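Problem 12. The chain below contains 185 residues. Write out its predicted structure in token notation.
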Amino acid sequence: MTLIVAVTGMPGAGKSTATVALVREGWKLVVMGDVIRAETERRGLEPSAKNTGEVMKLLRKERGPAAVAELCLESILKARTERVVVDGIRSMAEVEAFRKQAKVLLVAIVASPSRRFELLRERGRSDDPITREMFEARDRRELDVGIGESIALADEAVSNQRTTPSLLDAEMMKIVRRWVQDVAP
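Solution.
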């Protein structure tokens, strides 16, 4: 039986940071944003915030609301990995796609807009917003695809408002270990 820890949260909340401890424990990492960035490049586009956002919406329009999850599932099922952490859930349709194939724990990482903007500016990835206006536009785009619902319906939530990466890791590990004990034979 495959176990999937599906991590959701607004851009910059700390989803990637929260997955580090699980990866160190041997969980296979699948980053949904990497699938979108790869598809953006495959379509001959620069992986900017605008282009990745448009490709994310196009994929969902072309293949349905669970399109990105289904692309991730292809690699998960081929790898025959029993423990997977998925970084970047944006809708309940994606969660349901994973739940058809595995046991899933949905964890929301939450932080205020000002904290998230600060963290994104520090991260400096090519598709990160550089202005407050870009940041707010990205938030609206994410909310339009259903991320708010996945955060609201998460099985667990972890605050990254006033914490450190090591404390965030520790909280994630505590939640996941408890869940694995409950669901694993």
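Discussion. Residues 21 and 169 are 5 Å apart (CA to CA). Students who got a different answer should revisit the alignment rule from Section 12.3.
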